[in-house]
Amino acid sequence: MNTHLRKLSILFLLSACGSQSSVFNLFPQKLDPADRAAKYLEEGRPEKAKTLMLSELGTDFSDTYNALDATSITGASEALAPFVTTAKQATFASLLASAEAQASGLDPIDLMLKSKSLSDSSGQSNNIFIAMWPILPAANSASVLSAQKATAALVAISSFYIREDTLKLTLFQLAATSLSLKVADTNGNNILDASEIASLDLATATLILSQIVSAAQAAASITAQSETNEAKVASKISSVATALSQSSGNDDQQKVQSWLGTLGN
To answer: What's this model's pTM, rounded to 2 decimal places?
Structure first.
């Protein structure tokens, strides 16, 4: 049942269901915690799912998770991992990640469809991390942190991954990186102009670089057939990471600025 519920949680986020009847009509009336959390996600009540899953994951996990902020997010997955020791707990953490993303306005359906539709031509509008901007929530410290927390919860359960977890991780890494870049778009025109690129500081550039590397690592773990949507998204992320690694510069700031500068508009 655990694996089944984790698959259901991603299906609720990645597929548009045309049926008016809930999939949970197939389940008994008394639902276990994972069933109930998945039902909350289906009903668009992610905060209820978050509260329930944090309760089930225990005080140590929930206290650590709730205390995460911009200064502690780097080691978040390592801090959370010791409190996830069973497949059942991994199911709870996976559902928590889905709830965190849904509550912050991140829609994996849109992420998947948008990234799938990108052309292979150059330019910022076809860069997978920038092309996401129009479908992302407002870019601010809160939305970036939510995407990072969803990612951290998934990285913490790496010993128990199923395929759907890997796909969610890739999408949430994509969203976290895209939001971090979107913060730099101060004039809100969905393009980074020369002055905005020049204003990127070292700390922001280092964050963006590390997130792109992490996103590429998550994407590389997708072993689906080359023609699947997941693999196409993974390929685009990996291409960006390769281009960034080849950018000129003496530090992260110069490398990211150089990479963005070569994209054009």
So the answer is: 0.80
